[in-house]
Design a protein that fits this description.
Elements: H1 5-8, H2 13-18, H3 26-40, H4 56-73, H5 78-99, H6 104-117, H7 122-125, H8 130-145, H9 156-168, H10 174-191, H11 194-200, H12 203-210, H13 212-231, E1 238-243, E2 249-254, H14 260-301
Antiparallel strand pairs: 1-2
Keywords: Membrane, Transmembrane, Transmembrane helix
Protein name: Acyltransferase 3 domain-containing protein
Transmembrane segments: 54-72, 103-120, 177-199, 211-231, 259-281
């Protein structure tokens, strides 16, 4: 249908690099779509129609890790559970190095530890020093997460981080390791700070958290369509010099990246469309998926009717700070 044609002709690297070529015919399009959907849930190839979905297989992998770890440690005391999860963190680094995942076990098992720390009093015990420890942890986490995914030698600070990571961090995916460590430190800084939690519990950010997964699912498609259309509105194709593998130069026609104001306008249009689309997704589609999941659960468990929830209070403790 040509919806991605503008993005495919853009000189913006991400748009041009992640936009698939159109299929030869409708039959081939169906085959390509099925191949792309299967690639989403397999290690190795990526879905050419939505490159950001590379993370879904690791989210699925992480969910199995979390369920298994919770079953393993459910009857343990908090101290022994934390010790066991710490061992699993170290063990998972070996798995990640072997299969090349983005350190899924590290994030999942450390996340369980942080979740328990926020409930059993660990965060409250640090509340007296949170005004010092929390800002430093949050800034450190953001700094670690800012490590670039490519060309770390382009700046002195990332060059030093790359040298440190190659020497001391496991595996070759240094950027993902820094991102994982940074996310853990960032969440730790938020958990121990009543002020940070208060800020993040405000309604605009609370709404953003509710639609965050829908944003993740939809942003790639909207970037290649609406964003690309607005970004290159009114532009003509311009010849660009390219160098082939044999060293010879040749010309390709592309839409040049416009100036700051048009880029900013396209970004604002994208943000508005993404917010509306994500809200519609949450209101209209998520309930349908929830009903499908509930029905499948009943079939799998042999229950013909849903369980009636008791009026008991939550078994989880509630923080007072």
């Amino acid at each position: 249908m040509g919806l991605y044609s503008t993005a495919g002709l853009s000189d913006a690297f991400w748009l041009n690099n992640t936009t698939p070529l159109p299929s030869a015919n409708w039959l081939k399009a169906v085959q390509d779509l099925l191949r792309g959907l299967s690639a989403t849930w397999a290690f190795g190839p990526e879905n050419p129609y939505d490159q950001p979905q590379w993370a879904l297989i690791y989210l699925l992998q992480g969910s199995f890790m979390i369920i298994s770890a919770l079953f393993l440690t459910a009857t343990m005391t908090p101290t022994w559970r934390t010790a066991t999860l710490s061992v699993l963190i170290g063990w998972s680094l070996n798995w990640s190095w072997l299969i090349g995942d983005p350190w899924t076990g590290l994030c999942c098992f450390a996340g369980i530890i942080l979740a328990e720390m926020s409930l059993v009093g660990g965060a409250e015990a640090l509340s007296k020093v949170s005004h010092i420890l929390s800002p430093s942890s949050i800034l450190t986490g953001l700094f670690l997460m800012s490590y670039p995914g490519g060309y770390p030698d382009a700046a002195s600070w990332s060059r030093r981080m790359h040298a440190f990571g190659v020497r001391f961090l496991p595996g070759e995916s240094v950027d993902r390791m820094y991102g994982s460590l940074g996310g853990i430190v960032l969440v730790f800084g938020i958990i121990i700070s009543p002020h940070a939690r208060w800020v993040l519990s405000q309604r605009p950010l609370e709404w953003l958290g509710k639609v965050s997964f829908a944003i993740y699912l939809l942003h790639g498609m909207l970037l290649r369509t609406i964003f690309a259309w607005v970004l290159h509105l009114g532009q003509s194709l311009t010849p660009f010099v390219q160098t082939g593998e044999d060293g010879r130069e040749f010309y390709v026609n592309r839409y040049p990246v416009p100036g700051f104001f048009q880029c900013a306008f396209a970004t604002m249009v994208l943000a508005a469309c993404l917010a509306v689309a994500s809200q519609i997704w949450n209101l209209k589609l998520e309930p349908v998926f929830g009903k499908i999941t509930t029905r499948l659960e009943r079939v799998a468990t042999g229950k013909s009717s849903p369980e009636v929830k008791s009026g008991e209070d939550s078994i989880l403790p509630t923080r007072k700070d």
